[in-house]
């Protein structure tokens, strides 16, 4: 097993460190002459299954659900098709309005999650075309799908999803760009800009990891200081919101610290009552069109004496006056920021859990894939 961990103490940290490589594999060969290529969808295109799409439903659970939430922002932005992301366990029982004009995207790294399978089977019965996003070749979801987009992330042994999250988000971005392109919604020069920014993401994640592995980095010592708190809050806006949800989920799954993610603007409508000096807050404040709004939400919290940790974009000096600790990530387009902002949050959750002596590769009560409803 030591050999399988490749010199790392745990699979999770190995897999976090494999993210640049996983992402590179997901992106390789997709862009040519300023165009995005997804040959996996050609059959669906030829069969006319993508011509009349009026609406998209993304169906997923857990971390894959958060990837699906990010996809909503990307697909709506690029393809201007309304997207609803729904947790699979609810989807099945909400008498969903689906038909041939509703494209269903199933996101499941294992391809075996029962809730997702059951929901997608039902959507198919109503005539909905299905695209599966999964890491596992020939998994059950692939047999329910008209097309499969594989993550190619390599095996993920740690129960909590890390590299499969990053790869799922990347594949969903490509799907969004593809739909935007095929509907003529993205100008060629815009497409070049998106593809160029996407191409840089693996190296940018590598930089975050190199920084975290270097002497004097703040994440591990910060995690040790936070290891005895009872509760933490995560806030973000726009794509920072699902990033906050995923940051909170990683922390609770792996360290058993109570953690919740909120849309930053929603906090004041109730949950701010939970904040006190013993409840640290993580704010996702990377460069975005809602940056000022997030900062003002952070200020509201600071007024309650909470310890403030912020994920910010390199070069943002302004944030120093609003934060006790800052995790910097490289600059990218706003829409791609979750891929970078998630990485320090994964590392933070991991180091907190290690400091608490938790079983980071196999947290209690969790399974890698839940094959019962
Ligand atoms: C389980 C795992 C989660 C995972 C979820 C969905 O609950 O513990 O980490 O996100 O299943 O898994 P899937 O394979 O469908 O992406």
What secondary-structure arrangement, pairings included, does this model have?
Elements: H1 11-17, H2 19-27, E1 31-32, E2 35-36, H3 42-46, E3 55-60, H4 62-79, E4 83-87, H5 88-91, E5 102-107, H6 114-125, E6 130-134, E7 147-150, H7 163-182, H8 188-212, H9 219-226, E8 231-236, H10 240-255, E9 258-263, E10 281-285, H11 291-302, E11 308-313, E12 325-329, H12 337-355
Helix pairs in contact: 2-7, 2-8, 4-7, 4-10, 8-12, 9-12, 10-12
The protein binds 6-O-phosphono-alpha-D-glucopyranose.
Residues 61-64, 108-110, 113, 116, 159-161, 366-367, 369-370 line the site of 6-O-phosphono-alpha-D-glucopyranose.
Overview of this structure, please?
The chain is of the alpha/beta class and 373 residues long. It has twelve helices and twelve strands. The chain has helices spanning 11-17, 19-27, 42-46, 62-79, 88-91, 114-125, 163-182, 188-212, 219-226, 240-255, 291-302, 337-355, and strands at residues 31-32, 35-36, 55-60, 83-87, 102-107, 130-134, 147-150, 231-236, 258-263, 281-285, 308-313, 325-329. The strands form three sheets. A five-stranded parallel sheet has the order 4-3-5-6-7, sandwiched between helices. The protein has a five-stranded parallel sheet with strand order 9-8-10-11-12, sandwiched between helices. A two-stranded antiparallel sheet has the order 1-2. α2 (19-27) runs antiparallel to α8, α9 (219-226) packs across α12 and α10 (240-255) packs parallel to α12 (337-355). The chain is globular, with a radius of gyration of 20 Å. The mean pLDDT is 96.
């Amino acid at each position: 097993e030591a050999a399988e961990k490749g010199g790392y103490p745990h699979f999770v940290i190995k897999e976090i460190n494999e993210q640049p490589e996983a992402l590179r594999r997901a992106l390789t060969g997709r862009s040519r002459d300023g165009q995005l290529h997804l040959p996996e969808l050609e059959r669906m295109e030829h069969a006319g299954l993508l011509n009349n799409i009026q609406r998209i439903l993304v169906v997923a659970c857990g971390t894959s659900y958060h990837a699906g939430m990010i996809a909503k922002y990307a697909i709506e932005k690029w393809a201007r098709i309304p997207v609803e992301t729904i947790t699979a366990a609810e989807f099945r029982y909400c008498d969903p309005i689906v038909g041939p004009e509703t494209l269903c995207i199933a996101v499941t790294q294992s391809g075996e999650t029962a809730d997702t399978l059951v929901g997608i089977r039902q959507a198919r019965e109503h005539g909905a075309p299905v695209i599966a996003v999964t890491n596992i070749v020939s998994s059950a979801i692939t047999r329910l799908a008209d097309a499969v987009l594989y993550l190619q992330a390599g095996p993920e042994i740690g129960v909590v999803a890390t590299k499969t999250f990053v790869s799922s988000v990347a594949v969903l971005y490509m799907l969004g760009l593809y739909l935007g392109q095929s509907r003529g919604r993205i100008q060629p020069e815009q497409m070049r800009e998106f593809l160029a920014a996407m191409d840089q993401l693996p190296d940018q994640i590598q930089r975050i990891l190199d920084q975290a592995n270097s002497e004097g980095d703040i994440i591990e010592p910060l995690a040790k200081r936070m290891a005895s708190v009872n509760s933490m809050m995560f806030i973000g806006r726009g794509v920072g919101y699902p990033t906050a949800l995923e940051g909170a989920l990683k922390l609770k799954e792996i360290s058993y610290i109570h953690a919740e993610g909120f849309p930053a603007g929603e906090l004041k409508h109730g949950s701010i009552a939970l904040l006190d000096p013993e409840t640290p807050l993580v704010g996702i404040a990377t460069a975005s069109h809602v940056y000022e709004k997030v900062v003002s939400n952070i200020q509201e919290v600071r007024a309650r004496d909470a310890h403030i940790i912020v994920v910010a974009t390199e070069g943002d000096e302004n944030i120093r006056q609003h934060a006790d600790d800052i995790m910097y990530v490289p600059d990218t387009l706003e829409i791609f920021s979750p891929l970078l902002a998630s990485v320090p949050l994964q590392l933070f959750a991991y180091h907190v859990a290690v400091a608490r002596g938790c079983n980071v590769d196999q947290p209690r009560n969790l399974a890698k894939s839940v094959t019962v409803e």
